[in-house]
Amino acid sequence: MSKGINVMAKSKSVSATPVSDHLRATGNFNPAWYELARMDPEWLEKFLDMGLKPIAAGVLDPLTIEFIAIAVDASCTHLYAPGVRRHIRKALELGATSEEVLAVLQCVSVLGIHSCALGVPVLAEELAALEAQSPNARKAS
Prior knowledge:
Blueprint: H1 18-25, H2 34-39, H3 41-56, H4 62-74, H5 81-93, H6 98-109, H7 113-133
């Protein structure tokens, strides 16, 4: 079991943003966060602390964390390519096989089907409603 991340381990003085500082020092700070860090460092720190708590707890092994990160970053609601690349690289470095990474990507790809599962019935209902209002208004294929 992993010991997790101790963001204060090497710090000699107390920082107002230890999580952000740790992520910057380890090269894991998302460049998209710099402006937010400038505008509201306290809010970003709380957000990052919340998001990293499960990782820091050490309950999940590092490879499982990378698989989850791949799934989150590759999901249709996120699509964060730099994160997908970083976490795939890290997963492979930790010993993941290409088959395992592909399985993660295949599992998360089913999220996209929900767009059709939601939208197609609505489309059918709206086409039926339009047809009922004016039978000649639109011919559905």
